[in-house]
Amino acid sequence: MKQWTTTRTLERDACLALLQTKSLGRVALSDRALPVIVPVVYRTVGDAVEFETSGRLLTAAAHAGHVVCFEADDVDFVAGTGWSVNVVGPLHISAPSLVVPGRPWRHGARGTTVQLLTNVVSGREVLCSRPPGDAGSASDGDLAARSVSGISVLAPT
What we know:
The chain is mostly beta strands.
């Protein structure tokens, strides 16, 4: 069965709204001239992405004001949809913001609070569907792994 995949570029406001729906992301930066990706639990504070770290790498990068890339995403494997948002900007040390009610945040000893300024924000939404006029519906056995714009999704075959 043929499948159609479409991607749609998301506007800045839509990207920031999507970031508010999740709490796990990744920061990509350089350590001794090698690329490193560090998972972080984050929250959005205004137009910034904020997270705590007790690690040397992110703390040093924030003290130095390094520019990094942050990514968060989500995939609905059954529906064949997903999104990915990227933020590029400088890191800096920040005073901790108030915890937003209902949002997960790290428990235990507090680390260094780091904020990423959202100088550049980009995102894409991915939709996988059957061609118009195809009355078939996918069952669990009709789903196959696909890679679409760097996002792996399960989509109808």
